[in-house]
Each structure stands twice: as structure tokens, then as C-alpha cells.
Amino acid sequence: MEKHNTTISNPLTAPDFLNSATGPIAIRMTNDYLFRALLQRNNKVLRGLICALLHLKPEQVQSAVITNPIELGSAIDEKTFILDVKVILNNNIIINLEMQVINEYNWPERSLSYLCRAFNNLNPGEDYHKVKSVVQIGLLDFSLFPKHPEFYATYQFLNIKNHTVYSDKLRLSVVDLTHMELATEEDRLYHIDKWAALFKATTWEEIKMYAQKDEYIREASNTIYQLSQDENVRLQCEAREDYYRRQRSVQHYIEEQAEQIAEKNSVIENLDTVIKEQDSVIAKKEADIRAKDSVIAEKDADLKARDSVIAKLQAELDRLKGNSAIT
């Protein structure tokens, strides 16, 4: 894909409504409902984010349509709320966008499931070459692979020997919002780091700063402010925050239980080790006892043999004495 820098040459002044916004942000952009509402409310923001993530020029995007919109502000069921934003780009590429805050330790499997379901997009009678490309992009507020952290990672199906791409119609990308410091020069060129900073912003002052540097982020900031003033949207965002808190509490409880189980298992393992050592000592002692018993048995056998010889000798002596008396 062609490279394109979306930096605005002359700094832009933040929109007037942002000038009066100060202090902490009530709902951060890592809130998946606010993320979805932002992309659904403002198509320019949706296009800008997609251009950044896919390294596209704005003129390369003719259309970006969300195919699973929700009614913003309406009550949602936290258990059935659809997290991923499904987009059809230029009527040719299917994109799944998702903001994920809680690490449920199943993202690889979950993202592959989304990817494969979306790839099954042929209509009856269509040839396989008409299958639409699918891109799954997760914006995660945690590290997917803590031992191998990376800010923006992309995965494709490759030959494991020579790295030949099997198909360019399947792609998985992950933005790690906790490791913006690892953004590469290319990531910064496309302002992916600035989008991440916007999503992680905690104050309106931060948002104003980012809004001056990129027209799409400025547009996003404008819409975020408008959405934050919509009471119905704000209530749904707060409901999601409550859901996160409960999930984190459950997760924390599970982690505590796992730690306690691990500690008990460690104690059990230590006891098993002690028992095995004691069994080993007992086995050695039993072997020593058996060896001593064997020596005693041999000595007993020798004594019996000696007693037998003595008895025979005594009998012979008695016989000889008897013969001598007769003579």
C-alpha cells in the first residue's frame, strides 16, 4: 500500500467547543460503546482511522459503511452487546474493528473466529475468486503476547519456511494501547500512535493537543465532545463502565483463587517431595534391615551347621567311649 502522511502542515486551532472543556474526561475512548458510537456517528472519523490502520490515502476510500449499526442511546444488554464494528470498505473489503479493554485470554481464538466467519462471504453461485478480503483489527488495552510486546502488529498466513504469503485476503492486526512507546517510524508516519494516544487520553487538555495535529483526530475530538453531551449515550457508556468493573472484580477474584490454588499446590508439591524423601530413607533402612537379616540368617545357618558337626562329633566320642569301656 502507498505511504501517506496525514500531518497537517499548519497547526490548527481546536474547535471552539473544546476550548471550554477542561479537566478529566468522564468516559475514555477505551470504552467500547463510545468507540462504536464515535465511528457510527462520524463517517469521516471512520475513514480516517481505517486509512491510518491500513496505510491508505484518503482518496483511496470511496466508501466505508458500517453493516451492523446500533441505535445510539438505546438500552443495551451487556451480555449480547455486539462489540465488533463491521465495515465494508469500497464494497470490496470487510473490516472488523473492535476495542477490547478486558483481557479474557482468548483474543487469538476469538479474532480468528471473527476472521473466518467474515471470510465466508460468497453468495450462492459465486466463484471463489470473488470472495472479499477480510481484515480483523483489535485495539487492545492489554498486551496480547507480554513476552513479545509490539505496538502495532500484523499477521498473515505465510509459508513457515520461505515466508511466501498464502493469501493476501486474510489479515489480522493488533494495536497494543499499553505500548505506544514501541511505535515504529512507520506507525508514527500514519499517525497510528496519535490515534492510540487519543483513545488513551484522560483529560480534555490532551485531546486538544492531539486535535491540533491531525484533521481526522480533530474531527474525532469534536464528535467525542458531542457524544459526551448526549445523556442517553453517556448513560450507555457508564453502563459499560459498570460492566467492566464487575468483569475486573470477577477476574480479580479468579486470579486470587488461582494464586491460592497455586500456593496450595506448591505446599502439596513440597509435602510430596518430603514424603518421597522420607520414603527413600525408609526404603534404605528397610534394605539395610533386610541385609542384616540376611547376615543373621547366614550366621544362624553357620551356627546350625556347627551344632550339627558338634553333635556328630559328640556322638562319635560317646561311641568311642562306649567301646573303650567294654574292652
What does it look like?
This protein is an alpha/beta fold and 327 residues long. Helices cover 52% and strands 11% of the residues. It has helices at 16-19, 32-41, 43-54, 107-119, 185-189, 192-200, 204-211, 215-228, 231-326, and strands at residues 64-66, 85-89, 93-100, 133-140, 152-155, 170-176. The protein has a six-stranded mixed beta sheet, sandwiched between helices. Strand 2 (85-89) and strand 3 form a beta hairpin.
The gyration radius over C-alpha positions equals 39 Å
Shape: elongated
Strand order of the largest sheet: 1-2-3-4-6-5
Total beta-strand segments:
6
Q: Helicity level, as a percent range? A: 40-55%
Any low-confidence stretches, pLDDT <50, length ≥5?
1-15
| Number of H/I helices | 9
Topology:
Layout: H1 16-19, H2 32-41, H3 43-54, E1 64-66, E2 85-89, E3 93-100, H4 107-119, E4 133-140, E5 152-155, E6 170-176, H5 185-189, H6 192-200, H7 204-211, H8 215-228, H9 231-326
Parallel strand pairs: 3-4, 4-6
Antiparallel strand pairs: 1-2, 2-3, 5-6
Helix pairs in contact: 2-3, 2-8, 2-9, 3-8, 7-8
